[in-house]
Amino acid sequence: MYENLLNHDPESEDPDVEKPTYEGNKLKCGWKVIGTENLATSNAKSKQVLTNWVESKVASLLYTNEILYDKAGSVAMTAFDIATSIGGSEAIVESFYSVMDTQRQVRQLHTTLENRTILDWATSNMLNLEDVISKAAKLYVDGSSSLKLPRHRVRVMKKKTEKSYKASQNDVRRKIKILSESLDDEVALNINESSESDHNLAVCQQFTNELFLEYGGQEKCPWTCIIQIKAAFKTYMKSKKAHAKRTLDGTNAAHVKKCCRSNRKREKLGRRLSSLNSKDWTPERKAKVAAVLTLDYISSEESDADEEGKTVYTVKTLPWQSQNLKKKKKSLDKHHMESLPAL
């Protein structure tokens, strides 16, 4: 990472782009940082090293300067994130010289010692890269109370399958609705009882048999086990009870309107994620855009009626989003429209 950064020529950047300014010594890569001092090494000589910097300004430069980011590389930037957020810049310097001290041998040139230290310090991480990244990812997702790191929700983009849980739930809703509308009380769902009651378990077993019969046998049914069916059945029971309560309280209409608005946001998000996957952008650029493609960054649409009584939708814009984000969203929406077949 540092080799790439030191080889970076700031003069090649766009002169119109606003650059952060710093106070202190100027390095080869064009940074102006603060906090350098002489540090005694094992050969009794002193070496000027970087012991501190203005982290917010350095981070701003790394993440807003696309040329510099590309020079460092996405993998190096991940390591930079972990190192600075957990250990800090001083800890990075100290860890290097602690490794250097353990490698010290009698009558060994300082240059040789330094090269050996760099090799050992880097090679160890390279050989254990997969394990290190796996642990770092787990720590990022799960968080840590001892390190005061919060949990993070990670978006995973994947293709839908025929055995999706949503499809299974739709099967349950459809079959139970048919059985519940039966005039026979023995097969009607009773939402006043638990899903584990004898009556409702019998209903569950009956519509399970109906599903197997519809697909031509249990072995051909897309459901892999009975546990899935029971879980979907339990979810359906909760949904019916909640619907009955909202109807009694008079809040069901507002709930339906809220669900419709949420569904429109999810559909819009899904279209943009699909367009992002098929765009001919670089992996780094896609990763940056994917990081903000969440429901929190999707504008909602309020339904209303025009003068003729037809339903129309008014987009509620996000006043805080940047022009760059708006431009990326428009590009994804345009890409989606162009991918649709002609009428």
From TrEMBL:
Domain of life: Eukaryota
Composition bias, Basic and acidic residues: 1-10, 334-343
Region (Disordered): 1-21, 323-343
Name recorded for this polypeptide: Uncharacterized protein
Organism: Paramuricea clavata
Lineage of source species: Eukaryota, Metazoa, Cnidaria, Anthozoa, Octocorallia
